[in-house]
Automatic annotation (TrEMBL):
The active site is at 176 (proton donor), 270 (proton acceptor). This is Glycosyl hydrolase family 4 C-terminal domain-containing protein. It comes from the Bacteria. CDD domains: GH4_GlvA_pagL_like (cd05298). PANTHER family: 6-PHOSPHO-BETA-GLUCOSIDASE-RELATED (PTHR32092), MALTOSE-6'-PHOSPHATE GLUCOSIDASE (PTHR32092:SF14). Pfam families: Glyco_hydro_4, Glyco_hydro_4C. The keyword DNA damage does not apply.
């Protein structure tokens, strides 16, 4: 509960209001007004038509559940970013059309095609950098005291770029993959959820490892988790997974094979793309990738439910519900707003958190969150295996940002070629040359 003497109510802007995650965030906000009271909720998007479909349903939801909250959707940056306390950013520059090419172009060359990893993730990163920097600049122009919680991917490259290009900005880059996995870990050991776990974790975004996991009483849960994960990965099954899509089932199960590479830790699911790229390519369809699945599933469900709410004029029977994505971002706002020093993962400059990794690397580690933002916790030294992996991949992410800043073809070719997912500099160049054409409306002209 909010401290009785604190009568503040907050103004929140969702940048990327047309996102498929927006309804989940709205539900979490409306369900959590006792912990995080709102006076205003705004949406901002550069596609007003897409945003309107979600905004019209949200207007009904708010009228029925919290009519005291002022709600507005706009494509005008000044209107959107003025009088805001928190910006929740979740844009997809180039939208699903470009994600589809990020996935399909590499696969044509026998290389992993994926949203945030490999050549697809680097291509997405070069589109996202200007999009997120623009949001930061709007926020600082119109609401200089606001905090930005950024989900926009690829979070690793976006975080590297925002820390480098806007080093003093109040932006926190986050990811919901580790918390989704920790909810699974809690289910595996019979606890309620991730909040019942105490953990140590380090790495890069979509590229990390758990080294310690206990319950609140300090009992070591790693042996039980390792035993389970070695056989089942993070797949829980039963009611827990009744709505989980097939490709996510495959990803959660593949964690068993990733774990075997280092049985002293538990891996992030995304490491499968780096350690088993041939297996991933073999199990991919270059003509029907994850984007096609998302458009046929999540996007269809979300926009279909929004249309149903608007057609019926009520949301009283909606099946929209909060999810990992939304609970995390609202927990973060609450920690900052009320200086709770809650312990949460964030993607931040290393500065010694991992003592034997480049201090300027952008890492993902546990932090204490209060009104001054994240305070990084020391995770000690990376082991040799992790140090090698992290150093290489962080160099890829730095080269991607260098390429955008310097408009450098060579730096981008180096980023593609250095990436563990790409087997050969010649193949890297073939993929890069195709991606330059595909991204002509988004990337700077490379020289
Ligand atoms: N950090 C994480 O762990 C995590 C988890 C899930 C999703 N995401 C990211 O959240 C974002 C949204 O995902 P989604 O599947 O809902 O995407 P989506 O395509 O459904 O929605 C993205 C919205 O952003 C808008 N947009 C694009 N460029 C913009 C710009 N320059 N300015 C303003 N608005 C812009 C689009 O019009 C669209 O409405 C993606 O970047 C996705 O990768 C991150
Ligand atoms: O392929 P998508 O668009 O379904 O998912 C890509 C995203 O996957 C992760 O986010 C998961 C999240 O971990 C899980 O809890 C739940 O909310 O589903 C999300 C998306 O389906 C990853 O962390 C993101 O960075 C990816 O964009
Ligand atoms: Mn993520």
């Amino acid at each position: 509960m909010v401290n009785a003497k604190d009568d503040r109510k907050f103004s929140v802007l969702i940048a990327g209001g047309g996102s498929t995650y927006t309804p989940g965030i709205v539900l979490t906000l409306l369900n959590g007004l006792d912990k995080f009271p709102l006076r205003k909720l705004k949406f901002y998007d550069n596609d007003g038509e897409r945003q309107k479909k979600i905004a019209d349903a949200t207007a009904i939801l708010i009228k029925e559940r919290a009519p005291e909250i002022e709600f507005e959707a706009t494509t005008d940056p000044k209107e959107a970013f003025t009088d805001v306390d928190f910006v929740m950013a979740q844009i997809r520059v180039g939208k699903y059309a470009m994600r589809s090419l990020d996935e399909k172009i590499p696969l044509k060359h026998g290389v992993v095609g994926q949203e945030t990893t490999g050549p697809g993730g680097i291509a997405y990163g070069l589109r996202s950098i200007p999009g997120v920097i623009e949001l930061v600049d709007y926020m600082e122009k119109y609401s200089p005291n606001a905090w930005m919680l950024n989900y926009s991917n690829p979070a690793a490259i976006v975080a590297e770029a925002t820390h480098r290009l806007r080093p003093n900005s109040k932006i926190i880059n986050i990811c919901d993959m580790p918390i989704d996995i920790m909810d699974r870990m809690a289910a595996i050991v019979g606890l309620k959820d991730r909040n019942d776990l105490v953990f140590r974790y380090y790495g890069l975004n979509h590229f990390g490892w758990w080294t310690e996991i206990t319950d609140k009483q300090g009992n070591d849960l790693m042996p039980q988790l390792k035993e389970y994960v070695s056989k089942n990965g993070y797949w829980v099954g039963g009611d827990y997974d009744k709505g989980t899509e097939a490709s996510w089932e495959s990803t959660f199960k593949k964690a068993a094979d990733v774990y075997k590479l280092d049985p002293t830790t538990l891996p992030n699911t995304y490491l499968k793309y780096y350690m088993y790229p041939s297996w991933v390519v073999k199990h991919s369809d270059p003509n029907y990738t994850r984007t096609d699945e998302v458009e046929a599933h999540r996007q269809k469900l979300v926009f279909g439910e929004c249309k149903r709410i608007v057609d019926n004029g009520t949301a009283k029977d909606t099946d929209f519900k909060p999810d990992e994505h939304s609970t995390y971002i609202v927990d973060l706002c609450t920690a900052i707003a009320y200086n709770t020093h809650q312990r949460m993962l964030a993607i931040i400059p290393n500065e010694g958190a991992i003592s034997n990794i480049d201090p300027t690397a952008t890492v993902e580690v546990p932090c204490l969150f209060g009104s001054n933002g994240p305070e990084r916790l020391s995770m000690g030294k990376a082991a040799t295996y992790q140090k090698g992996m992290i150093t290489e991949q962080n160099s890829v992410e730095k080269l991607a940002v260098d390429a955008w800043v310097e408009h450098s073809y060579t730096k981008l070719w180096q980023a593609f070629s250095l990436c563990k997912i790409v087997p050969d500099a010649g193949i890297a160049k073939d993929i890069l040359d195709e991606m330059i054409v595909a991204n002509k409306d988004f990337w700077p002209e490379l020289k």
